[in-house]
Amino acid sequence: MKTFLFAFLxxxxxxxNGAVAPFIKPCTxxxxxxxxxxxxxxVPFIAPGVPALGIPSSDPLHIKKTNSDQGxxxxxxxxxxxxxxxxxxxxxxxxxxxxxNLHIDLECPLYANGTYKLxxxxxxxxxxxxxxxxxxxxxxxxxxxxxxxxxxxxKGDKHWKITGYDxxxxxxxxxxxxxxNLFGGDATRAKPVLDLIDHSWKExxxxxxxxxxxxxxxxxVGRVKKFFLAVPLSELAQL
Length: 239
Ligand SMILES: *[C@@H]1O[C@H](CO)[C@@H](O)[C@H](O)[C@H]1NC(C)=O
What we know:
It is a single chain. The chain is α+β, with helices and mostly antiparallel strands. The protein is built from six helices and ten strands. The protein has a single domain (61-232), classed as Super Roll (Bactericidal permeability-increasing protein, domain 1). Strands 2, 3, 4, 5, 6, 7, 8 and 9 form an eight-stranded antiparallel sheet that branches. The structure holds 2-acetamido-2-deoxy-beta-D-glucopyranose (NAG). 2-acetamido-2-deoxy-beta-D-glucopyranose binds at residues 81, 113-114, 132. This is JHBP like protein.
């Protein structure tokens, strides 16, 4: 049984037809329902990384440093690890080939941790600290519009080349944001700041989380770009 299962998985993963991305179910470009389910089915194969296609793991996604300075507040995050991208679910995938536009709606759970350094004010309260932080939410929605053009490689295969993108995001479920070791671990001084964060999470994360979200989208689109350059269009779509 085990051997059979292994053989079956190997068959699925390597493909019977020598395809570069055998885990993709090709759809006609106008079939949004097929594109949506095909994209969701591909996530578990692409998120852990596809070394053969030069795509590194995206779960966790590592970000060295990001700055969330806002007015009176200086906030830096370092060595972020972002978990959850392999559990993203596509809600809509639509292609408008005449406009070379790929429209994506997806929802992801996210958990990120790393270290932070804060000085100045959070909203109106003076706050400072340095230590570990965590951000967690069950669901963030992303809407991404990707522009592409069709190019032909040396072998004569057509590919999509991503040329730009726009995105929006929506904090669907509550976001928990924890800064450990505020005021050098002084719990009495930290409490009003943590209460404020808990109370005003939406406003805060919309401002503070923006650079993190920007990096996540940039990285994710970068992977899709590599993927499209590596995989011929004929494997992605029934043209
Ligand atoms: C971040 O979370 C991961 C997974 O839960 C854990 O293994 C790691 O130790 C955490 N890192 C920090 C700095 O808290």
